[in-house]
Structure formats: C-alpha cells, structure tokens
Amino acid sequence: MEDKKVLTAPCGLDCFNCLIHERNLTDEIAAMVSAMLKIPKEAVEPCKGCRQQDGRHFHLPEGCATLDCVKAKGVELCSDCNDFPCAYLAPVADLADQRPHNMKVYNLCRIKKVGLERWAEEEAGQIRKRYFTGKFIVGKGQAD
C-alpha cells in the first residue's frame, strides 16, 4: 500500500493510473499524448509521480504550487488541511477533456470517507474512467 500512498498526489490525483506514469507509458501511449499535446513524441517522458519528482515534469517544468503548499503546511493530502477545499483545487473547463484536474476534490473526499487504501484499490480507476468516458445528466450526475 505504501506505493499507492506515494503515488497519490497531495491534490488527489491518482498518479498510478496516469497514462504517463513510468509503469503505464508505452510507445503507443506516448504517440497519443504527443498528438494530444502537440509536442514531439520524444518529449513525452515517463513520470514517477509528483512526490518523487517534486512536482516537476515535462508538462509542469516550474513545479506544482499545490505540492509546495502541502509541504509548507505539513500535511499529506489537501483534504488534511484546514483550508480544504481551496483555490488550488477549483474546477475549470479548460483542458477538462484531456486532464483529470476536475476530479481532485471528489477523489480527496472519497479518500477521506473510505480511506486511501480502499480508494486506491477499489475506486480510483473507475473514477478516472468515468471522468473521461461517462456522461453527465443534469440532476442525476454521472451515467455510465
């Protein structure tokens, strides 16, 4: 379980399910990411997770303000903070179809409710899948 804890970003993203995580990145996925981000395939480098790379990667060269914040506050996850939820986790429509940033608060709430281990083993993959493939029905939420 330690691996899943280390590979869960403080903001609630499941690094272990990310396409560019070093365990998941294949030549085919690199080509897809390259086309999606309009960057050379060679620029799509495998990621070890934000905690292992101090929030820096090819898509975030300056680092992550959210990671810096949790370090400064001495908490493991944003949901452990007295200011949760804050502007770092605010959802936006920009890039929502490409990056899972709008599911962070939901993930953190589920982690708080069911625990990191259960969320990582039973829920994280399905949450990510529904985020990208599910449909939203007004008044009902997600539909498969």
Helix and strand arrangement:
Elements: H1 2-6, H2 27-37, H3 65-73, H4 104-114, H5 116-133, E1 135-137, E2 141-143
Antiparallel strand pairs: 1-2
Helix pairs in contact: 4-5
Low-confidence stretches: none
> Which class do the helix and strand fractions yield?
mainly alpha
Beta strand count: 2
Q: Measure the end-to-end span.
A: 29 Å
Radius of gyration: 15 Å
Strand order of the largest sheet: 1-2
Overall, the morphology is globular
- Helix fraction, binned, reads 25-40%
The arrangement of helices and strands along the chain is HHHHHEE
Largest sheet: 2 strands, antiparallel
Domains (count): 1
Mean pLDDT: 90
Strand fraction equals: under 5%
Number of helices: 5
How would you characterize the overall build of this protein?
There is one protein chain. The chain is 38% helix and 4% strand. It is built from five helices and two strands. It starts with a helix and ends with a strand. It has helices at 2-6, 27-37, 65-73, 104-114, 116-133; strands spanning 135-137, 141-143. It has 144 residues and is mainly α. A hairpin with a 3-residue loop joins strand 1 (135-137) and strand 2 (141-143). The chain is globular and about 40 Å long. Helix 4 (104-114) runs antiparallel to helix 5. The protein has a two-stranded antiparallel ribbon with strand order 1-2. It has one domain. The longest helix is centred in the C-terminal third of the chain and has 18 residues, at 116-133.
